[in-house]
Design brief:
Length: 415
């Protein structure tokens, strides 16, 4: 594995406490944004003090952690706050497939953080000017215009055939579950500004993690892992139903989802694997015996909140490595599911369904699974959505489920 690294020999890092900046996303001065925001709290970043381009291959998480240890370990750091996300941080977005696609890790020159009534500004490289200088509101960016839509690798009927083929493999006993995704393109007349999408997503999906890294922009409900000191948390999602039109219909659909043997099976593959991956790392681990229902503006999900205490000092990236790819986005068993995904989807997922998030110099951080997202490339956006397939899956129902997941980014682009 050969990593491309652009970084100075030694980072000069300074964090200062600042007045409440309010909405973080409106502080971003240009479209090449880095973001991780939920309920108005989190981190936004811009500029590049360092960039790591990580090729496919085993050990990519450990390789990144090793480089960050060097970079952060040799840095001159003035960080009087000492809270998760203060001092130097790296944002990252890893490719889904361990065998294909580059991953991107960026140490921004400027980071604004906001959590629990405190806010901070971190500057790398330059002597920071007065905090108010960078706190000026950026010019409001323009919304995407004249969008046209087209299929990605597979049309809707072709994708339904892929789902039917997956069901055959599962019924033949070759695997228990596989997650199949498809892509969709949006073409705009002008370059798409990530900040417009981020602002719309954060407003409409406040309970999701609105993220941006290396042009991948989305709002994921799925927390792969948060590490704060020795405490770790995860939110496993798998099993989905459409929202109802009224509160009564929602309640009825939530009850049906919780009682659905097919969705419970889809969910238990994912929850069980997360338990098995975390157990060896944890002195204590709690996985609820029954999933709950998470209600989002577009869908309902079966959800298992997992909590644990690490028994050794480990960076959040070590835990990401132990978890990815979970059956929420890949399948069971992992190797057969990966192979079938490669055969049936007809596309490279890139960084969709890979880990996305941030890590600081203490090894604290938050990583989600990059879902409900699009890869921006100038005037074009490539959207992704996928569904867990088990023996009882129906291709038409899975297509409808994928459409309801696409709606998140369709809304972000169209308003
Ligand atoms: C694969 C996606 O979502 C995943 C699949 C789910 C399912 O199949 O029920 C639910 C949540 C996510 O874990 C996606 O949004 O693209």
């Amino acid at each position: 594995m050969k990593l491309a690294v652009t970084a100075p020999d030694r980072l000069d890092v300074r964090t200062v406490e600042i007045d409440d900046p309010g909405d973080l996303i409106s502080r971003l001065p240009h479209s090449s944004a880095l973001a991780w925001v939920r309920h108005g709290e989190g981190l936004v970043g811009w500029g590049e003090a360092a960039r790591l381009t990580v090729p496919a291959g085993p050990g990519r998480f450990a390789a990144v952690q090793g480089l960050l240890d060097e970079l952060f370990g040799s840095a001159r750091v003035d960080d009087p706050l000492g809270v998760p996300g203060s001092g130097p941080v790296a944002f990252g977005s890893f490719a889904f497939d361990p065998a294909s696609g580059d991953s991107v890790v960026i140490v921004p020159r400027h980071v604004v953080g906001r959590r629990g009534g405190r806010a901070w500004l971190t500057t790398i490289g330059d002597a920071p000017g007065p905090a108010t200088r960078t706190m000026e509101l950026a010019e409001p960016p323009a919304a995407p215009s004249q969008l046209s839509w087209s299929d990605g690798a597979l049309s809707a009927p072709a994708w339904q055939r892929a789902v039917a083929a997956a069901v055959e493999h599962i019924r033949a006993g070759r695997l228990g579950k596989v997650v199949l995704a498809r892509d969709l393109y949006a073409q705009a007349s002008e370059p798409i500004d990530a900040r417009v999408l981020l602002a719309r997503l954060a407003e409409r999906f406040p309970a999701c993690y609105t993220f941006a890294c290396g042009g991948l922009v989305g709002a994921t409900p799925e927390l792969l892992i948060r590490r704060t000191g020795d405490a770790v948390e995860s939110l496993v999602l798998a099993g989905t139903a459409a929202r109802g039109a009224t509160p009564a219909e929602d309640a009825e659909r939530a009850a049906r989802l919780q009682a659905s043997a097919k969705d419970r099976q889809e969910h238990s593959y994912a929850a069980q694997m997360v338990r098995e991956a975390l157990a060896p790392l944890c002195a204590q681990l709690t996985v609820p015996s029954e999933p709950q229902v998470l209600t989002l503006p577009n869908v309902l999900h079966l959800a298992s909140p997992v909590r644990g205490l690490l028994h050794d000092e480990r960076s959040v990236l070590d835990v990401v490595e132990a978890l990815h790819p979970t059956p929420a986005v890949c399948g069971t068993p992992t190797d057969r599911a990966l192979e079938l995904i490669g055969r049936l989807e007809g596309m490279d997922r890139g960084r969709y369904a890979g880990p996305v998030g941030w890590v600081d110099a203490r090894g604290d951080g938050e990583w989600g699974i990059a879902l409900r997202c699009a890869q921006l490339d100038g005037t074009r956006a490539r959207l992704f959505a996928g569904c867990g397939i088990v023996a009882d899956s129906d291709p038409e129902a899975e297509l409808a489920e994928a459409q309801s997941k696409f709606r998140v980014m369709q809304y972000a682009l169209e308003g």
